[in-house]
Amino acid sequence: MSATPLQAGLKTLQLTEPFRIAHGTSTERQVLRLRWNGAVGEAPVVPYYKESAAVTLEWLQALDWNGSPAPKDGPRLGRLALDLLWHDAVGREKGQTLGQLLHLDPAQTPPGCRSFSIPTDLEEFAKKVAQVSRQFQVLKLKTGSGNVEFDEAIVATARKAAPDAKLLVDANGGWTVEETVAILPKLAKYDLTLVEQPFHHDGGSESWRELKYLLPSHSIPLYADESAQGPDDVLTLAGLVDGVNVKLLKCGSIAEAQTMIRFARASRMGVLLGCMIESSIGVTAAAHLAPLADWIDLDGHLYVADDDYQGVSYDEQGRLQLRDLPGLGVTSLADGSPS
């Protein structure tokens, strides 16, 4: 590949509505955007991950990158953006989609999922859930509002509004271990598919071990998200959780995400493939790994009001649709070009 200067910058994305989770409420998000030789890469700047975009930009400027595979050390933001850029460039050069490069069949994907941030008005929330469930039969509910009784009301409202939907509950670390022990038996009656990251990941595997001691048997599968940042964490959590949420930003590359999934399977864990709130670039890149997952939560781009790229989409039945384009499979909406 020719030596073309790497273009790097930050882009602010406006959200369609305030997005509220246990970590706080967002009305906009930033992404690190890279361009090189017609290819594009991206990594989301997540507020609660406390990573410096400025430090990452300095690292990229000093790297003098010329098209080689992304380095395995350095700021996670930069490594991921470079990794996606490199995969996009290789795919375009070879005329293959990312899925083809990874030897994955895009037809073998789980049903799509829509997420809901913590509501403030349960009546309006019920209407929204009922409407969305006409297209999507997998719904993810954000909880961790600071009031576990309200969190249960969120779940009860969604179950009544969408009686046949698969419900995933994500507390984003908003409960304590004790609150988790108290609320899980109450949530069991709502026929939940899984509960994700009930308590903060700062407690490490010991919090999961404590939960297992205090609540040795439960009927709802428990998945780790922030507790599982990379492959080593998956191995540490083996026997303590029923599954893990794999996200590109957490592990920093396509290869590391595949390793997380492989380790999870070896440990008999389920796999939820997730994303952050980001543009279609990052979500589409993750979507190519969907055939490896049991569940997918790949709708972060649908919360972006000014998404400037087109990529992954969903049909009327909520099935994931990837475009047959080389590389990541995204095109710029600014001019209709691939970058």
> What is the fourth-level CATH superfamily of the largest domain?
Enolase-like C-terminal domain
Alpha-carbon Rg, integer? 19 Å
Distance between the termini: 17 Å
SSE topology string: EEEHHHEHEHEHEHEHEHHEHEEEEE
Distinct helical segment count? 11
> What is the CATH C-level name of the largest domain?
Alpha Beta
Helix-strand category: alpha/beta
The CATH architecture of the largest domain comes to Alpha-Beta Barrel
- Outline the low-pLDDT stretches: none
Task: Tell me the strand order in the biggest sheet.
Answer: 4-5-6-7-8-9-10-11
Strand composition percent: 15-25%
Walk me through what this model shows.
This protein is α/β, with parallel strands linked by helices and 339 residues long. It has two domains: 7-99, Enolase-like, domain 1 (2-Layer Sandwich), CATH 3.30.390; 114-332, Enolase-like C-terminal domain (TIM Barrel, Alpha-Beta Barrel). It is 33% helix and 22% strand. It has eleven helices and 15 strands. Strands 4-5-6-7-8-9-10-11 form an eight-stranded parallel β-sheet. Strand 13 (313-314) and strand 14 form a beta hairpin. Helix 5 packs parallel to helix 6 (177-187), helix 6 packs across helix 7 and helix 8 runs parallel beside helix 10 (254-266). It starts with 6 loop residues before the first strand and ends in a 7-residue tail after the last strand.
